[in-house]
Amino acid sequence: MIRPVILRPMALRPATLGLVALAVLVLVLPLVISNSFYLDLVIRIAINAIIVLGLNLLIGFAGQISFGHAGFLGIGAYASAVLPTHFGWPPLLALIAGAAAAAALAAVMAWPIFRLKGHYLAMATLGLGIILNLIFRNEASYTGGPDGMAVPAMELFGLQLSRDRQWYWVIAALLLVSVWASLNIIDSPFGRALRALHGSDVAARVVGVDIARYKMAIFVMSATFASIMGSITAHYVGFVTPNIADFFHSVELVTMVVVGGMASVFGSLLGAVLLTILPQALATFEGWETVAFGAILILCMIFMPRGLLPTLAARLGSLRFAVARLRAGRSAGESDS
What we know:
Blueprint: H1 14-32, H2 36-61, H3 70-87, H4 91-113, H5 118-138, H6 140-143, E1 149-150, E2 154-156, E3 159-161, H7 164-187, H8 189-199, H9 201-206, H10 211-237, E4 239-240, H11 247-260, H12 265-281, H13 288-303, H14 308-336
Antiparallel strand pairs: 1-4, 2-3
Helix pairs in contact: 1-7, 2-7, 2-8, 2-10, 2-11, 2-12, 3-4, 3-5, 3-10, 4-10, 7-8, 8-10, 11-12, 11-13
């Protein structure tokens, strides 16, 4: 006897639903945003979100702290400024060269840096970022020094990107690809090895994880993410200064990871949204941005150590569990009566 085939709706994971919702949001936003200021703000949020996704893989999943990550942004930004301006390189080739340089530097520095732990590791990455920032400031003949320099327009397939809406679609596509790639990395054996590193180096070594290789791999990957987005930022803004690689920018990126939720892909997006909008909200209070970032980081570490999104998800899960128990108790009472 042949049984009829019953078609059931495909079960979608929350991560897949989140990616679909993000894609819908990306498609709808240009239709509802007519103001160029808000479109620029959305583009900057997307840029920060992509950077933070790569940094969250390093900090949130692998448990390796980096307070010099803005230095890799600077490598990409200045590669896209210096190489086309002084040496006549095509912008796309300069972007690739910047990413390769950042990856090479990260690979060289990973071995000595990741032999350190805790505060020493944070200090080492901080020192790396400060050195890169000083190079960008002092090599004035190439970088323009503290005043910065103009960046040539980006060209893709013969089309020069000059309008905000053109940049929106390019960066939105990069955001969707980055979220999709991050979700797949997390669910892969590589992602499971990263989570093992976050738990304990000794335990990870016992189960066969090559600690040095995985730490180097995730550091290089995160640095490459940052360098590419540094180049994109430089071309989008049309100008670059050493401020892109300063210490405060590194702290800002780490704060986005912590506030949104470490080891949470969509928490990274939430952190980027909140802390990109916050300086705009505090624009009338000059100097208060730094105080606000510090206060938010402290409050999150005290009251929400897992970050905003994971904490809200956990509390929602607890609420659902309590409601389910209450309903079960009522059902049991009605059946007894």
